[in-house]
Each structure stands twice: as C-alpha cells, then as structure tokens.
Amino acid sequence: MSTYEKRANLAAAQPHEPALESVQPVAPVEARAFTNRFEIKYLLGADRLADVQAALKDFLRPDANGSQDGGYYVHSIYFDSPDMRFLREKFEGNLTRVKPRIRSYRSSLDGPPGRIFLELKGRYDRIVEKRRCPIDRSLAKLLLTETPVHPNGWSAKHKVLGEFLYMSHRFQLIPAVSVLYHRTAFFGAYWPNLRITFDRLVLCSPATGLEAPSEDFVQTIPCSQTVMELKYNDKLPLSLLRRINSLGLQQRSFSKYAVSVQRCFRGLSGNHSLH
Fold it and tell me: Are the C-beta atoms of residues 37 and 128 closer than 8 Å to each other?
C-alpha cells in the first residue's frame, strides 16, 4: 500500500471536520479582556465580506507587505508523521499540540516563492504561539524530502530549526499536504499587536513541492467564503469587540490543515503516491 493510500485510510478513520456551512456557531465573544496570544476565526459569505470590511475600516491599516490591494498569496506545506500524529491530536482535543510547516509567500497565484520560513505553530488550549525562522530555497527543498534530515550539524543554526529537526527525526516527519490561499492583511490602526486577516480562495493539494502550480490544487472551501482571523496579544480592544459583536459575527472553529487533509485524502484509492 502506498503512502498516499495509507494517509487516505487514516484520514477516513478520523472524525470528519464538518464543512464550514454546517459548523455550529459558538456564542459571541464576551466583551472582556484576554491575556497572551489568541486567535478568533469567523466565516464570512460573499454577501457579508464588503460590509464587514467597511465596518472595521477605521480600526485597521493595511499590511505594508501586501500588493497595492494589500493582498498576497500564502503557501503552507504542513508536516506530519506517517500515522498522522498531529492530525489525531487535533481531533482528539489535545490541549497542547503543534503544527510544523514551511510557509512561503507569492505575489501571484502561480508566482515563484518569495520569502520562505520554517514555522512551528503551537497551541495550549486557546493560547497560540507561532515561532519561525527564515530559510533559503535549498534548505526548504531538503526539508521537504520524504526521508527526515538528521539533526546533527543543523541544530545550531536556529532554535526553531533545531526543534523541527528533532521532531522530524523522532516522528519521521514527511510533508503531508499543501494549502494555498489569498490573504488580505491589516494591523490595528491604534493597537500594534492586533492583526486581522481575510483569507479567500482557500485551496489544498497532496502535492508538496515548493513551487506546486495552482492546477494541482482543489477548493478546500467554496470560493464564495472567506475566513477572517482576529489575532491579538493580551487584551482585545473593547471598542473593536463591540463593533464585531454589533455585526452579528459568530466565532467558528476551523483548521485549514485538518480540512485540507480530509479534502485531499478521504476516500481516495488506487495507485497513488504522495509525490
């Protein structure tokens, strides 16, 4: 049985991450102070996106890294163990979990990768920590080989790289799935630690090459839907929170990685390989 078929069977055995249309909303976020780093996600339909962005306009300033419209493409390649340890931890509700990935940025859908980072996105309950280090294209391609790179000789270059290589060696990590989407990003106009992103055209693929073309991807969620993420440290500004609640927005639980794995691998059979 190929690696691809094994992952398809394992994905099918996991509790299904429901489609966004069927996700039951949780109660609106209470108007209170938060501590540490948090993320809140919302699902916006095409009929709400423009209204929400207009309502929040006074609170935001565009991300200078974006194009003229403030947008850019994000390509994330997630790693997992052959038995999909990190996916299982998510579905089992582990409070402490991590998602290793290589993330690059494109100026267009099929543009070459620009800046490339190795990232470890950790979570403890609702607290989120993302650590990363810049890597060059040659190292990225090396890390994307299916045989884990041994930690010796590399760990001293950067703490994040050392931790990734330790995990790679311990869990036999291999690239699992790619996620590609268009992001429009903003910072808080008055709060430097606040960041709001709007992710649309969310695509996924079992192809995990650094320059995988868009034709290798399929829709993760309908193109009419946008994932809005609110990210902040310590305290969420009360005025912004009240504005969001006045819009009737409801928090959603959604993992691009989990949905993408099941979208790519669930129910697949036949002679497939991961590459």
Answer: yes
What span, in angstroms and rounded, lies between the C-alpha atoms of 231 and 263? 26
Q: What is the CATH number of the domain that holds 118?
A: 3.20.100.30
32-84 pLDDT, tens digit each: 333 468 889 999 999 999 999 999 999 998 887 766 666 999 999 999 999 99
Using alpha carbons only, how large is the chain's radius of gyration in Å? 19
Residue 273 lies in a domain: no
Residue in 265, 233, 228 with CA at minimum distance from that of residue 247: 228
In total, how many domains does the chain have?
Answer: 1
- Which tokens belong to 137? 């294209």
Residue 158 belongs to a domain: yes
**pTM reported for the whole predicted model:** 0.82
Q: Domain range for residue 221?
A: 3-265
Q: And the tokens for 158?
A: 């950067």
On the 0-12 / 13-18 / 19+ scale of CB atoms within 10 A, 95 is exposed
pLDDT the model gives residue 125: 80
Residue 274 domain flag: no
* Inside any domain, residue 271: no
Sequence-ordered alpha helix ranges (H) in the chain: 3-13, 46-56, 85-91, 137-143, 159-171, 238-246, 256-265
71 three-state secondary structure: strand
